[in-house]
Request: fold
Amino acid sequence: MAFLTRRKSLLVAASAALALSLSACGGSTATTSNPPVAEKPSFAADTTMAKLSSAGKIVIGTKFDQPLFGQKGLDGKPVGFDVEMGKLIAGKLGIPADKIEWKETVSANREQFIKNGDVDIIVATYTINDKRKTEVDFAGPYYEAGQALMVNKDNTSITKPEDVKGKNVCSVTGSTPAATIVEKYGAVLVPAATYSACLEPLRNKQVEAITTDNVILAGFVAKEPEAFKLASDQTFTKEPYGIGLKKGDTVFRNWVNDQLEAFDKDGSYKKAWEATAGTVIKTAPALPAINRY
Ligand code: GLU
Reply:
């Protein structure tokens, strides 16, 4: 009897140790890189879900140069919170991560890529707004960012958007922050195709600031904290991130929205955040209320 009790307590101790070591790995990208894949999920005929699921592959547009959200690694595979969202959705369609074709989308080509059918969905720090909704549809939002400014570490003259009036500011063509900084704050836009292309002009002082979403800038600051800083912790717009898909595909949009809510309930949303953007941005987001328009 005494032996059994002792044996049992040893087993308990062993499994506790295992749980500990597993949770210690829980924050690594490896554990969320291959999210669960549904086994033979069934979908109503003629839906986009049925089509993708039976093809066993999906093309997902994302950024390739944005730390924390979508950045292509040395192995050629993108990593980040957007990438994890894409993998989770693919998994619900029964598509494993290695059957996802990742296509680089930049701010200016997203609507066109969706309209052309170059991609099935886009998860790419993609702000939902009415103008874009005339061309594409959005599931979500799955995150809410806000526009901010990044400056050189030694800059003391820019702390708010009003400070960039008449100054050279780099941002990306086709993005919402590029439009806002010119139209609302009178900056002189120095346009680039991607945010990473703005880094050297800032370092060289060809521009005085870079503007885009706070969480994108936070990724660049985290990589080079000795060179760059956020001008302030304040944001000055709301940038709700949606998953872009073909306009009019309401059944697919509703289904993606259902999945986002499911990821929130089963903890995979939180896990995806912690493994990626959460390594730098410590406040974990709550899934915003889904906009089922
Ligand atoms: N979220 C903003 C947008 O969709 C800025 C980030 C980006 O360009 O992707 O325009």
In short: The domain at 147-230 is CATH 3.40.190.10 (D-Maltodextrin-Binding Protein; domain 2). The chain has two domains: 48-145+240-279, 147-230. Confidence is low (pLDDT under 50) at residues 1-32.
